[in-house]
Specification:
By secondary structure, the protein is an alpha+beta fold. Helix content is about 45%, strand content about 10%. Helix 1 (about 20-25) packs antiparallel against helix 2 (about 30-45), helix 4 crosses helix 5 and helix 9 (about 280-300) packs antiparallel against helix 12.
Length: about 550
């Protein structure tokens, strides 16, 4: 008995193609076994998304490439198109500026916060050390000497590096020590655009060299980067490449910082932030420009002068007829040029011509709803709520606050990424130089990794998220702490990113100074501190006797 094809709900899992029918006609048993085998294969997978026998999925053919295969070849075009959008598309420009303003803002500030218990220091000694170190680092940050090109201070370089990282997918920072005007060498920074890190002479990728990133064959870690002297876009310049080790051979010092966000294991180069939405962004720009041009065209009021052919012959001589005919022939029907339609302009038509107009219906009432629907999808891809993406809050306080809090999680995550991969490593490099040169005392700094980590601890803070209703938010924070579902430290970090302990130490010093100066006023609703009662002296007992 021939095998029956597998069925689901009374229907065969696979349909017979021409080859199946031919085989079945000449060899029915073979054809039945063939159809049964195809049915077994159709049942093997449980995900509909992997089916290829459905018409809706039959043309969806993709290859499972490695991170290098899927990313590297597309990077030059992705970078170029991303930068074009960041230059010319309002939505892309606004999204990038919003991310920069909230994640970096006016700059990330460093507050040294050493582990004085591990270092065997008293709190007063730790406070003095942190104050002196913070003051020295702040002077370095505010000077343009921290930039190799002497153009930007550290805070502006942080913004530039973050912007470059978002635009290009990754950014590189080299950390040389430069001697200026006869002074001792000091740390300086130079941000390198992603395009300049590439294979020398455009050579093909190898197992240990991928798009300018040199990898260790044993561990896969980055051991060096190859940096072009000139941007590859400067075609008129003869280019050379420099191999820069990521770490010093003997000291392990970080010579290169690579800022990017890996999305897959083994990924060595970053992808521009807006790479997944480049097509809808471009199409939205085209649609917006088309609607804008149509609206402008519909607003133009012009007069068309239609001439009767007989009157044209009788009223004008040959030269005038030629001039009028030339003006009519020169108009191409387009708007915007010096000879085109303009508000209040009279246009002569050739004899026998007439204008047939249609109502353009601009502004288009469906423009705004359609654009908003696309912007919501773009916002989801960028991790930015629609209200924050377009900077338009028209709903309730609760909805607006929810949008800002959701966006703030994204901004905080990107800020922490910059702290981990950029600002903190730079602070540690600066501190190591200061300790090595003897300007800052730090016993055991180079002898032990744990001791070095204790000396290098710091807190990085930036601009806070702001408040929609500060009174409500402070009251809610107080109630969460009173109910013991939150802590002062958690609420402090949520407010502006600064730990409560740092604020408490500073506030304690401020209150002591106010009390010393006689300007302290107890906060409303708090009981004054009880006065210390002196112990009755013994003279009263002596007198009673």
């Amino acid at each position: 008995m021939a095998e029956q094809p597998l069925k689901r709900a009374g229907h065969p899992l696979v349909q017979q193609n021409v080859l199946d029918k031919v085989i079945t006609y000449f060899a029915p048993k073979v054809g039945a076994r063939r159809l049964a085998a195809r049915g077994q294969l159709a049942l093997a997978g449980g995900y509909t998304g992997a089916r290829i026998d459905k018409k809706s999925l039959s043309n969806w053919r993709v290859n499972g490439g490695s991170p290098t295969t899927d990313i590297i070849a597309d990077l030059p075009m992705l970078r170029a198109r991303s930068r074009d959008q960041f230059r010319n598309a309002p939505i892309a420009v606004g999204a990038l500026n919003t991310a920069v303003s909230y994640a970096i803002g006016t700059g990330l500030s460093c507050t040294p916060s050493i582990d004085f218990d591990a270092l065997g220091l008293s709190e007063d000694e730790a406070t003095a050390w942190c104050a002196d170190t913070g003051r020295r680092f702040r002077v370095w940050c505010e000077s343009v000497d921290c930039d190799v090109g002497r153009r930007l201070n550290f805070y502006a370089q942080t913004e530039l590096t973050f912007r470059t990282y978002f635009e290009s997918g990754d950014a590189f920072v080299i950390t040389p020590r430069i001697s200026r005007e006869g002074r001792p060498p000091r740390l300086a920074l130079q941000t390198i655009e992603a395009d300049r890190v590439c294979n020398p002479n455009r050579m093909a990728d190898t197992e240990t060299l991928i798009d300018g990133i040199e990898l260790s064959k044993e561990t896969g870690e980055t051991v060096a980067v190859h940096i072009a002297r000139h941007h590859p876009g400067d075609l008129q310049l003869v280019n050379t490449w420099e191999r820069v080790p990521v770490r010093g051979d003997s000291t392990g010092r970080r010579n290169v910082l690579h800022i990017f966000k890996p999305l897959r294991p083994g990924q060595v180069r970053g992808v521009p932030w807006i790479a997944p939405i480049l097509e809808p962004l471009k199409q939205l720009s085209r649609y917006t420009n088309a609607e804008l041009k149509a609206a402008v065209d519909s607003a133009i009021i012009s007069v068309f002068v239609k001439m009767d052919p007989t009157a044209f012959q009788d009223l004008f001589d040959e030269d005038a007829q030629k001039a009028i005919a030339k003006r009519g022939a020169d108009w191409n029907g387009e708007f915007g040029g010096s000879d085109d339609l303009d508000t209040g302009k009279a246009v002569n038509l050739l004899p026998g011509e007439e204008i047939q107009t249609h109502t353009p219906g601009r502004p288009n009432p469906q423009f705004d709803p359609f654009v908003l629907a696309i912007l919501r999808q773009i916002g989801v891809a960028l991790e930015l709520p629609y209200e924050v993406l377009v900077m338009h809050f028209q709903s309730s306080y609760t909805a607006a606050r929810a949008a800002l809090l959701t966006a703030w999680k994204f901004f905080r995550a990107r800020r922490d990424h910059m702290v981990t991969n950029y600002t903190q490593p730079i602070y540690e490099l600066w501190l190591a130089d200061e300790v090595a040169e003897g300007r800052i005392p730090a016993p055991g700094f180079f002898a032990n990794e744990l001791v070095r980590a204790a000396w290098s601890q710091s807190v990085w803070t930036g601009d806070g998220p702001g408040s929609i209703d500060p009174v409500k938010e402070v009251d809610a924070a107080r109630k969460r702490v009173d109910m013991e579902i939150s802590t002062l430290d958690a609420e402090s970090i949520l407010h502006d990113g600064i730990p409560w302990e740092v604020k408490h130490r500073q506030r304690k010093r401020e209150v002591e100074a106010q009390k010393r100066d006689g300007t302290f006023v107890a906060p409303a609703g708090t009981a004054p501190a009880p006065e210390s009662k002196s112990k009755p002296d013994d003279t009263a007992d002596d007198d009673s006797e």
